Amino acid sequence: MCRNIKTLRPPVTPDADEDDFRAAALQYVRKVSGFRAPAAHNREAFDRAVEAVTEATARLLAELEVRGGPARATAEATA
After folding, report:
1. Counting beta carbons within 10 angstroms of the beta carbon of residue 21, is it exposed (0 to 12), middle (13 to 18) or buried (19 or more)?
2. pLDDT tens column, 29-65
């Protein structure tokens, strides 16, 4: 499932940003819903789902601790 979604956590992708999170979220919601582009009457629910998954992805990656390295939030705070 979702084979087009790439790994976004460091060190695999150390510079992933909000655009990467949104692209992954969009791919996920498309896969789960079965719609590449939703009909007008489903657009609002589709967009809310993409936003929720984007936020959850950002939160997850900010909180992950990779063995041998600091959490992304800590690393970015020191940069």
Report:
1. buried
2. 999 999 999 999 999 999 999 999 999 999 999 998 8
pTM score of the predicted model: 0.75
Q: What's the Cα-to-Cα distance from 15 to each of 1, 8, 36, 69, rounded to whole Å?
A: 24, 8, 27, 15
Do residues 25 and 16 make contact, with C-beta atoms less than 8 angstroms apart? Answer: no
Burial class from Cβ neighbours inside 10 Å (0-12, 13-18, 19+) for residue 5 reads middle
Separation between Cα atoms, residue 38 and residue 15, nearest integer Å: 30
